[in-house]
Amino acid sequence: MYIDHVKNIKGIRLSAPGILNATKQTLIGPAHGWEGWVMRLFTLTAEGHTPRHSHPWPHINYIVSGKGTLFLNGTEQTVEAGSVAYVPGDAEHQFKNAGSEDFAFICIVPEEGDV
C-alpha cells in the first residue's frame, strides 16, 4: 500500500530543448508498487510548454488545473481542468500553458516511458 499527498512529493524542474517552465512530480510508479506504469503530474507555469515530440508508448492525460492547448497529430485543441486525452504511441504532441495560472495535468505512461 502507498498513500501520500502531492504537496509532499518533490518536483523536478525539467530542462531540455523545447521545454519551458515545466516541473514533473512522479506520483505513483514501480517504486511504490505499481509495476509497469507511472503516473506523473506535470505543471507548466506561465508561457510553459513541453517539447513537440513523439515516442513509441501511448499515454493518457487528465487536466487538473488551468487552461492550455494540446497539439496532437497536426491539430491544436484547447484543454482545461476536467479535460481528458489519449495520445497514441508515435503521435506527435505538445502541451502548452495558454493562461496566466499554472496548467497542470496527470500523465500516465508505461514504465519505459518515464524518461
From TrEMBL:
UniProt keyword Metal-binding, yes or no: yes
Signal peptide extent: none
A GO term for molecular function: metal ion binding
Pfam family, one: Cupin_2
The Cupin type-2 domain, residue ranges: 41-109
The keyword Metal-binding appears for this protein: yes
Classification via SUPFAM superfamilies: RmlC-like cupins
Keywords: Metal-binding
Protein known as: Cupin domain-containing protein
Organism: Desulfotruncus arcticus DSM 17038
Lineage: Bacteria, Bacillati, Bacillota, Clostridia, Eubacteriales
